[in-house]
Amino acid sequence: MPIYVVGHKIPDSDSICGAIALAYLKNQIGEEAVAARLGELSPETAFILQRFGLEAPEYKTSYAGEQVYIVDHSELTQAPDDIAKATIVGIVDHHKLGDLTTDTPLECWIRPVGCSNTIIKMMYDFYQVAIPKNIAGIMMCAILSDTVIFKSPTCTTADIRCVEALAEIAGIEDFKELGMEMFKVKSAVQGTPARDLVMRDFKDFNMNGHLVGIGQLEVIDLSVFDDIKAELEADIKALKVEGNRHSVLLLLTDIMKEGSELLIISDDSDLTQRAYGKPTVDGKVWLDGVLSRKKQVVPQLQAAFA
């Protein structure tokens, strides 16, 4: 029976590329593995896979009775719905430790770095397995995406060194130029339905018993949202009601200005004041220097709920 390697719901490039890279590694060390996904590819991820000639992982939502290796999270809200009926054999993650639990011992590779693919590169080095050129390329792109081309405060020396090594394997001379191509793809939002944009990179979190949804859209110029911001605001309001969420936040992140406009709908009108020291005005607040949901948004919110 194979191990299914799968990332979180509404997968980003780290989840998809990490599943492909880790499944290949597992097969090379004699552990049968299949890369899987819990949702559709984002435009950025589709661009990355096409650039390096790789197919998307198998779309699979049910894992009851299966062996599962979790990538890029350890949260029940982000895992397969029937994960309690599966056997989790391992976790690779770079986020806070979530609420997934297991009945049996498991392999854990958890590091405070900018991307799960950085950890997977460490695993390749540990097992002394050569990385194919195309897989090195997608791993490199995932790290560039998660670290916002090294601008994110989550970026570490390990992430930079792994990108440099992976770029050499993949034959990419200017990886920063490729990174900008990726973010240009992310910035092409016109004509895309508001719900698709809000859900493009969206995660639910259980914060002290309150369900909080946080989405993020990273672009090279916030002006791309000028004509559709009202639609985005209306959609996060609808999403809050539909999911019976306490709060829904949408980060509109400008990677060039290095900051985010936060759109929020919440049962608590003082939430941003308590979390970030800034009041919400007309459902919005500018957070200067905020690029990372993982490091600069989620921990502060959890502290506010505590």
From TrEMBL:
What's the EC number here?
3.6.1.1
* One Pfam family it belongs to: DHHA2
Entry keywords, A to Z: Hydrolase, Manganese, Metal-binding
Q: Supply the SMART domains for this chain.
A: DHHA2 (SM01131)
Which positions fall inside the DHHA2 domain?
179-305
Which InterPro entries does the record cross-reference, listed alphabetically?
DDH_dom, DHH_sf, DHHA2, DHHA2_dom_sf
- Name-wise, this protein is inorganic diphosphatase
Tell me the SUPFAM superfamilies matching this sequence: DHH phosphoesterases (SSF64182)
Whether Ubl conjugation counts among this entry's keywords is no
Q: Does the keyword S-adenosyl-L-methionine apply?
A: no
What is the reaction catalyzed?
Answer: diphosphate + H2O = 2 phosphate + H(+)
Q: Which residues form a coiled coil?
A: none
Which cofactor is recorded for it? Mn(2+)
Q: Which gene encodes it?
A: ppaC
